[in-house]
Amino acid sequence: MKIKTKARRTAAAVAAAVMGLMGAVGFYDKALPDSYNIAGGEELTLNTFLGISSRPARKCYTTALTDISGRSSHSGESTLLLFGSVPVKNVTAVSEPRPMLVPCGEAFGIKLLTDGVIVVELTKVGGSCPARECGIRKGDIIISMNGENIRSNRDVSEAVRTCRENGCEVRLKRGGKDMTLTLMPTYCEGSYKAGMWVRDSSAGIGTLTFYDADTGAFGGLGHPVCDSDTKEILPLSEGAVGDIEITGLVPSAEGCPGQLVGEFSGDEVLGEITLNCREGLFGTLQNCPDDKEALPLGYKQEIVRGAAQIYSSLDGENPVAYDVEIEHIDLSESAEHDMVVHITDPRLLKETGGIVQGMSGSPVIQNGRLVGAVTHVFIDDPTRGYGIFAEDMAEKAKVS
């Protein structure tokens, strides 16, 4: 009887272990990305709670690639292994020379002109709203009116004045789709009106994340510039990097994020912004913003929970290194945010209360590598905020 009981317990323990193992395999299958960049000559390894290693897939095909900057790489297939032996899934591994980027941390001025204009409000004129009645909605991006490209508020006013009661053909974008509508303006208070407010530009303060000395490319902010009313990403027509003078700082407190306060110190253009996207702002600078040495790029699978530093400038002068902790890392491709960063440096906590608006883009350094950038502050706990992988930003800088 005792032997049978022991056998049952052993069988139950084995079954539980197998179920746990399969559960771990299923979790990592969904949680881990299907592709990785690795430094040339190195093997793919992941810093996960349970050890994940890799080996070349049985049917491994290697492809030589060259990006637009002339860097060569090789793409092949690898099998991820749990505990060094249990297959999780096959992934693509791209082997390339590890990029060297100058970590920045300087505040920079942002000037953007939109590609078209964004409808930010609809209002009644003379008892009705012509724009709403013809199908225009808040958040729409107006590209042209009566065949003429629209670039400013003045362009909209002129198009409405010209077409009058004859109607105006409006071409716009909504959710990435093109639409064409016919707007019939209303004559009210001595002029023809459409009943809509539009925005054609934006300006603000952010932080530079990195500079590529070989190409002049930069990445900054770590998140897109969005319209303050519609919350949609501003469609970029052209943009410029301007010199900014920090004039003050409002510290963060629980429930109230602070901000850097500044103003453009002149009309001098320091660089060109060519891309506004989910990963931030990208373009080219005329010169390297400071004399710091370039650091190797850290790939997402190399980041670990623990001590790190950020570079940030709170007074417009040279950036200062502050201690932080990386508390959470999400490698999944569906992740809304890549990292959680906790400010631990008493100097920064005393001066700012944690993260303030304007620090977005502050580079995160760990183990001598550029691994990410600060992007958002937690409203209920400004000592913590979200971050983005530097690797994702560097990929966008290649094509900006």
Automatic annotation (TrEMBL):
<dbReference type="GO" id="GO:0016787">
    <property type="term" value="F:hydrolase activity"/>
</dbReference>
<feature type="domain" description="Peptidase S55">
    <location>
        <begin position="175"/>
        <end position="400"/>
    </location>
</feature>
<keyword id="KW-0378">Hydrolase</keyword>
<dbReference type="Pfam" id="PF13180">
    <property type="entry name" value="PDZ_2"/>
</dbReference>
<keyword id="KW-0732">Signal</keyword>
<dbReference type="InterPro" id="IPR036034">
    <property type="entry name" value="PDZ_sf"/>
</dbReference>
<dbReference type="Pfam" id="PF05580">
    <property type="entry name" value="Peptidase_S55"/>
</dbReference>
<dbReference type="InterPro" id="IPR008763">
    <property type="entry name" value="Peptidase_S55"/>
</dbReference>
<dbReference type="InterPro" id="IPR001478">
    <property type="entry name" value="PDZ"/>
</dbReference>
<feature type="domain" description="PDZ">
    <location>
        <begin position="105"/>
        <end position="172"/>
    </location>
</feature>
<feature type="signal peptide">
    <location>
        <begin position="1"/>
        <end position="27"/>
    </location>
</feature>
<dbReference type="InterPro" id="IPR014219">
    <property type="entry name" value="SpoIVB"/>
</dbReference>
<protein>
    <submittedName>
        <fullName>SpoIVB peptidase</fullName>
        <ecNumber>3.4.21.116</ecNumber>
    </submittedName>
</protein>
